[in-house]
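Input set for joint prediction.
Command: fold jointly, output tokens.
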Amino acid sequence: MKKSAIFGLVVIAVAIAVIISVYSSSSTYATFAEAQVAGTELHVIGHLNKKKELVYDATKDANYFSFYMNDNKGEERKVIINSTKPEDFERSEQLVVTGQMVGNEFHASKILMKCPSKYTQDKLDVTEVKAKQASI
Amino acid sequence: MNTVFQGEHLLPGQIGQFFIVLSFGAALLSFLSYYFATTDDAGKLNSSWQRLGRIGFIVNSIGILGMGICLFYILYNHYFEYHYAWSYTSRSLPVYYLVSGFWNGQEGGFLLFAFWQAVLGNLLIVKAKSWERPVMTIVALSQVILATMVLGIDILGTRIGSSPFLLLRNSGIEAPIFARPDYLSFIKDGQGMNPSLQNYWMIIHPPTLFLGFASLVVPFAYAVAGLWQKRYKEWVQPAISYTLFGAMILGTGVIMGSFWAYESLNFGGFWAWDPVENGSIFPWLTIVAALHVLIVFKNSGHSYFTATFLVLISFVLVWYTSFLSRSGILGESSVHAFTDLGMFWQLVIGILIFLFITIGILIWRWKELPITKKDEETYSREFWMFVGSVFLALSCFHLIVVTSVPVWNAMFGTKIAPPADAVKHYNVIQSAFAFVVTILTGFTQFLKYKKTDITRFFITTGVYFLFAILITALIVAVTGVYKLNVVFVLVMCGSVYSVVANAKVLVDAFKGKFKLAGAAVAHLGFGFLLIGAVIAAGTSKVVSKNESGELAVQGFDEKAGNVKENIMIYKNVPVKMGDYTVTYLGDSISTPEHFYKVDYKRLDANGKVLENFVLKPKVQASREAGFASSPDTKHYLTSDLYTHITAVPSQGFNMQGGEAAHDEGNDDKNYDEPVPHEVVVGDTIRYRDGFMILKSINKQATVQNIKVGPNDIAIGANIEVHANNTIYNAEPVFMIKDGNAFDFSRKVDDAGLKLRFSRINPENKKIEITVFQQPKNKKPWIVMRAITFPYINFFWSGTIIMVIGFLLSIQRRNKELKTV
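tokens >
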């Protein structure tokens, strides 16, 4: 066999190994119910329940933040993360939390939040505009 | 519907839009003319098609410049009737940030890309000689496609591209005020710029990165031209210089981005494997691989197909990267908040055009490609350079597979999530590739092109390898890298080996073979860069762990991520943190930046201060924007100490923009229940955080703005407050004026105290001091996170050395060009 053919096989082998390793370490997007069964690290997509309490009190514990989140099926769980409360968290539109269920609580190691940031979303602040109108 | 709107400045937008259409038309003309110049006028010296192509391209360049000037004019004059100006800037922005506002939006990014491509195109018109016609056909085609991205014109009901000159009222925002002719008088200011972009790195990082992206069109165009014109071998030589240039600029742009992240973003480091970051290195990895294989081909005639393919695919990847970051597809996996401008399919078409050219031309010319049938020598430099390049390409392949997870989901309807611990996943696998690549950049230096004396090779390689292992062992032991996954130790070993091997070549170069210096310096830089990255990222330590007073959260184990990395400190209360004692001294505002002064002291065993400095991490706030934290870093030669604010009391933050009015009478509610103490001079009053002594009574006390009449009395109580290991003085005043008693309290903000001289008791000659103490949670505090990055200077200096290496190589290749 030619050396280039051997090398070609090596390349193909590495490429397959890469795909397998990616496949094995990638997780799935799940719901809380699925996370409860799985017991491993998962991503859950959902929304912040804005009616329930967000707990962050730096004077008590600077590394404890909890909130309630509804997953895409509407199921609600308490989520806890050992970190500070991300700024503008209340305004988040969508959350992707990574972590696992412990009892009935979801212990997150990472939170990715999508904010309707004024830099990315076009939204005229109409209330402000109205206030100005009134002042004329 | 014929409302006449008042106060709009439509002219600059109309001129700008005209320039867009002009540049599009001119690019199209240039493309077609160059195409016919290549085909119909082939061999003709005086081609009118060629002339037309040049004119078209120059008009296109003028159009792009015109667009830029119009856009800047609009931004500079704050014409918020334009969506772009309204979205990305505000009146309060300094002019130098208006420059970064220019490429804040995606349209500006495309404009920048087109601008650099125009510059390179004009350079090629002057320099490319016989290559001009086919090469410029491709460059002009790329300009056509880029121009459609900013066209913003409706064709058959679909909008093509997104124009930076879109008016706010036409931008699709629904608001009743747009029905009013004087709507503009209500839009006083733009939305401002994302605070994290208000940084000097954002002024120079995007232009550099886009020059890097744009410059990859040149080798691409040469490769296509070479195959198209059947000048299979000739294109390689001129393409090498441009490939070197592209690799150098793109690499610099990427590292600048990482420096920006390190200096001003708060994600705690210089690289986070974010999809957008990964996207920027896809084309870099392939173009560096392409570069090596081009050199292999030039020297030995082997690996023609690989070289051509890598050159071609690099530019396709530039487009793929654009697609990833601009189509909104990364929505669920990236923190970079780029939005979809409704150009998803347009971007896909952009990629497909270049992908089809790549595949099409290779198939078309497949049988004629100068592919050697002969096997390569195992002990030749070119064979191992080739292997290294393939591994670079494989590492790129891995990055693409993982980063594109959302793309696979969109294509196949799957629901795969990226790896839960993405950073670890990337670190381990990419390190494995880096190990192979660095080992190869090391030992290929001992090989010769074509054939090498095997025994000698094994001896020198072995000696240097042994030496490298010894140094690695030393570094690994000192820095603590050995505690990490073994793959990081391997990368370290590979990098050290690469450094020593290339240092040897460099020494030889100074002895005479100077033309080899470029590659050696670049490899040396790359080795240093990796050494720095492994140590800094691998052994970075969170310092901000307060060991005392921790509350254990039930059921939380270490696995759940960054556990207890934030520390809360009250103002003026020193806290022990690792080797340091930190004190939050206070804050200061210089709009829009809010600085928090944190004092660091390092003490020896006897309490002597070894080191003392103040860091000022800042929080940037623009109107309504809230919070964007930027770190401050103490740079040492061997490490960095990085500190950033992760939380502040919300009431403290709202105060900016005009201190909350001090309402003397009403602020008692901010304090705990007052405690009166009857004292005489010399008495001590104890309170929760310390004590105070009544030093003396001042019978000539004065109060600002109040005149003390002959029958009035004003008495001050000189009180010495001992708190936070500091002594503060305060003098509350008791006054009787015109028969009425008043008292003037004094605050000691740093100690969270308010003192009132509330009464004089003539019977026992005592006076009454009322102590108001702030409840603990009302005292100012900050939550911060501090990290050390050891030896990160290797990373930065490695980059600079690598760039110098590229410059030397470009110089060498250009010299070769002239002699050929």
